[in-house]
Amino acid sequence: MLNSDSPIWRPYTQMKTAAPPLNVIKGEGIWLELDDGRRIMDCISSWWVTIHGHAHPAIAETLYRQAQQLEQVIFAGFTHEPAEQLARKLLTHVPASLTRVFFSDNGSTAVEVALKMACQYWHNGGEPRSRFISFEGGYHGETIGAMSVGKSSPWWQAFQSLLFETDMVPFPATFDGDEQVEAKESETLDKIEFLLKQGHHAGIVIEPLIQGAAGMRMCRPQFLQALAQLARQFGVLLIYDEVMTGFGRTGSLFACLKSATAPDILCLSKGLSGGCLPLSVTLATDAIYEAFYSNDATKALYHGHTYTGNPLACATGLTSLELLEQHPQGFQDMETHHRRYLVQYLQGHPKLEHLRTCGTIAAMEVKTDGTDGYFNAIAPILKAKFLDAGFLIRPLGNTIYLMPPYCITTDELESIYRVIRQILDNL
Ligand SMILES: *Cc1c(COP(=O)(O)O)cnc(C)c1O
């Protein structure tokens, strides 16, 4: 029914070869219900946003009330309670040095704002700088600036000529039992120090603790501590893209808390509205804010989107944050369960390597004849097998990862590991 007669051009989809999309008629908790009556377990929180599960009653209630009160208003010259309250509440949960909240409406623009903020911070200070240090494998979104700091992505080949230059360094990705981790970290830190000594960088951009789209590549908190130390020492801005890692994903509310580091700029989006509506924020320190604060109109940050600070999205964000405050065990305890089932079902499996967990996320590579990476041919095969078994799991190339909503029960989580084991055994 939704096959080739649909006019819709889908994201990240080769329209010619992709299977027809599944028609979802209802979402409830971790479950998606299809028009043919099947139920699919959403093991990846629908592209990493659905932190409390689908159609959460408290979020639905908030949305209904807010829609009757105020659905949208221009955000220049006007404000509203949902945005004010959400901004204040957010600031109680991040490092105290972050004091300012700039709203936009998706993760890519949160990063785009961060880059522009950093660039204009130096410009306004009379010492223009626009060169960034970024990480191999980094993914920061779909816009030109965000693609530029995520330039190594296999997806951006056609756009390379549009992207600005950065200094790219290796990401010290690690996994259980990795003996090379310290060597990898010092190699990267040495490279960064060498670059910083040459001067004139505006900032360093990183997905802290976990590079998401690159295949859930994880680094240690120790590495971030050393990185933050270098940024301080050389006076360049540290930018954390926590669009994916934010709101409990790493087992702490934010990766900066888990790693005990404080960035100068922090980008948040995916889980911000509880997976309900598009919304994002870019948080900044007083020092950055002050560089824009002036009688000179040209020193203002000229960035804003039509739907900036949408009241419906802000209201759901507030409710989502309250839910996280009320039920922190959902994200705090999941790593223990992941570890237990990884050991019980998958550890030592001949077809797997590089098992790893961080908070609510578990990941591993399937050994194949092909090269590791997004275009590994195993991905569509595994995805189809998981779907047939009733599980939404979308491997990134030969990387299988789990990122369930926090409301998943331990039995449900165990059932995912059981099915991965079965499918691997029969591969
Ligand atoms: C998803 C993601 C983005 C982009 O967010 P969108 O809302 O899809 O634009 C940016 N950075 C990271 C780390 C992400 O995971």
Give a quick precis of the structure.
By secondary structure, the protein is α/β, with parallel strands linked by helices. It has 14 helices and 16 strands.
Strand content: 15-25%
Q: If you average the pLDDT, what whole number results?
A: 96
The CATH topology label of the domain at 61-326 is: Aspartate Aminotransferase, domain 2
Attached small molecules: pyridoxal-5'-phosphate
CATH homologous superfamily designation of the domain at 61-326: Type I PLP-dependent aspartate aminotransferase-like (Major domain)
Shape: globular
CATH architecture of the domain at 61-326: 3-Layer(aba) Sandwich
Secondary structure class reads alpha/beta
The number of helical elements comes to: 14
> What low-confidence regions span 5 or more consecutive residues with pLDDT below 50?
none
Please give the number of β-strands.
16
Major sheet: arrangement of strands: 4-12-11-10-7-5-6
Fraction in helix: 25-40%
CATH class of the domain at 61-326: Alpha Beta
Main sheet record: 7 strands, mixed
Rg is 21 Å
What's the N-to-C terminus distance?
31 Å
Written as H for each helix and E for each strand, in order along the chain, the element string is: EEEHHHEHEHEHEEEHEHEEHHHHEEHEEH
